[in-house]
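Escalation from tier 1.

The customer reports that the assembly of two entities below gives different structure tokens on two consecutive runs. Tier 1 could not reproduce it. I'm attaching the input and our single run for tier 2 to review.
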Amino acid sequence: MNLTNPNIPEDVRAVASNGTQLRYKMMELTVQYPDAIALGRGDPDLATPAHIIEATTAVIRQGRTAPTPVAGLPELREAVAHKLQRDNGIAADARNVIITTGGQEALFLIMQVLLDPGDEVLVPDPRYTSYDEAIDSAGGKIVLIPTDHADAFNLRPEAVEAAITPRTKAILLISPSNPTSGIITEERLRQIAEIAIRHNLIVISDEIYEKFVYSPWKHFSIASLPNMAERTITLNGFSKSYAMTGFRVGYVSAPVNFIEAMAKVKAITTGPAATVSQWAAHAAVTGPQDAIAEFHRIYSERRQMMMDGLRDLRLDFSEPRGAFFLWTNSSPTGIHATELAYLLLKEGHVLIFPGTAFGENWGGYLRISILQSTDLLREALTRMAPIIARYRANT
Amino acid sequence: MNGPQQLARPLAQRVAELPDAAAPSGEDNPLPETVQQAAFEALARGETHYTDRPGILPLRKQAVNWLGSHYGLELGADEVTITCGATEARFVALKQLVAPGKHVLALSSSHYIEAAAQLLGLSLRQQVDDFSGIGVVYLTAADDPELVRQVLDQAATTDCWILWDTSVAPAAGLHPAHHPDLTGRVISIGSFSDALPGWRVGWMAGSKVANKLRAYKQSMTICSTSISQWAALGLAEL
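Tier 1 run:
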């Protein structure tokens, strides 16, 4: 499918091959539709838990906002290390943890420290295209590993091994996945770990959606496997788990020398994360975890509703085993996903990201987020229905 | 969990030899009432999610107003991006405006960019007699005004960029953007860190590459901390 619709504005067409810029362009266009239902950005619509807000308020009232060490508030690094042991089975102490200004900065710093120019990083496709930018910024080269719908976008170890070259430095994993909501199963992670050890590769494991995995599937951290902590860089954060994207707090766990190097680069590029945010994150990780269970319940309900709705529209999607998204096959409409996303916004006032925002090969998919109330999700499906039906009828 | 040799390799090559950047400093202190109030109101409104990529509009307008009142500049809020302190603004500008192997000219405040230049493979010059290969000139109000004027005149004959960092020293009347031959080539950098250390709020403004710099900032940190931006707005409106 090609971008042939003459009604697609030039400013959209101009960024159609750049996933990140395409996402931002779609969000910019949405501003002109006040009644738009945004099923685009992965920003939880739920409120940040009250105990986190209360802790933040107390910190501000007490003026405990002086800059922290660049690697982060010692109390937070300690608490994150404890969480990694408790929840992920990763042997870590505070020295293995750096606090970052969100997961995005974590990704940026990892690549800056890890890569020499020309180093290759294996990345499952489709992917969050900010990986491309982080790798490119460090002079590295992204090498795509194909995944497919028939396999629920689980990563195949043989595909990983087939892509390894003498320049391969690292394998980047994201489970649950943005954009597919697939997961990499424990069995396959064990096989990938063997490959990493056999080829002496680093594993970067992005686990930002770890708290939202749906039964019967379970999250598994590759760094918990024998001999893997020493070669694994685990990336995570508070934004998705606790609905606190605006606080901008992420973290990385890795061998001590890598963390020290990241801190050195972080001092040069952004400085420490905001102190008030780090105390908020400390309240999140050390406080009651009930909110996550409640978020999980809400997302499960929405996920089911959206799956039912898409079936009613006769659209196929990959089983969402985690995260917030329905990776939906839009090819039965017969038009390119970028065109379809634009038309859904223009005519239906529903913002959905086209698959091409997550890789150039995905012009037949849409990424539909469930980060709206069930009422709004239902309304979005109602608005989508005639548009989908019209284009399907023309094919 | 101690590091295997392979993780240490790039550190030896690029990172371990970097000079230590000066860490932001400051003490825990009571915050002005208006700052607290602005932060509390933002929390109550649920301003705990991503802000717009450029930063919240009223804070960008405050940066515009400040540049107008201190330097007589006329910019639009769409030319301003809120950053994670001046540190991020400096790094973004150097990364995007100078190719590795080129030179950065800095006068009395070179220590603010020394580490970033080294990380990016740039060489730092402090003598103004040779402008060949210079991609960026980094200047502050702490520099000798007469020397600044000489540098700007020389810069005007080349295609280099000018960074005017207002976070380093109190504002003075001189601003490179007033130079008639430097239109669109001057990026102003500022910060709220003096009054709000630890909140990590800075900004970069102006130039014909404002959108390019904004896009790169987004690729690094998406947006700056929401609650910090609202607190900074409370300070700016004092």
